[in-house]
Amino acid sequence: MDIRPEPHWFKSSYSGGSGTECVECIHQDDHLKVRDSKSADGPVVAVRPDAWRAFIRAL
Predict the structure, then answer these.
(1) How many CB atoms lie within 10 A of CB 15?
(2) Quick one: how many helices (H) and strands (E) in the chain?
(3) In this structure, is the dihedral angle defined by the CA atoms of residues 7, 34, 22 and 57, taken in order, positive or negative?
(4) Would you list the domain boundaries of the chain?
(5) Does the reported pTM lie above 0.70?
(6) Which long-range contacts (CB under 8 A, 24 or more apart) does 37-44 make?
(7) For 28-45, how does the pLDDT look when each residue is reduced to its tens digit (9 = 90+)?
């Protein structure tokens, strides 16, 4: 039986310190998920790692 630990959301190191622009990320299987930390039950964006790297390079 393969038991995996529960995934852990972490705050982006680029999130602002004022508490108004917090982004949380999680690495799961073959993609990365991003959400607004103030709305943990809200929408989640899932992207493939190669698409995420391209997005970060473009910033």
Answers:
(1) 15
(2) 1, 4
(3) positive
(4) 10-58
(5) no
(6) 37/9, 37/11, 40/9
(7) 878 899 998 888 889 999
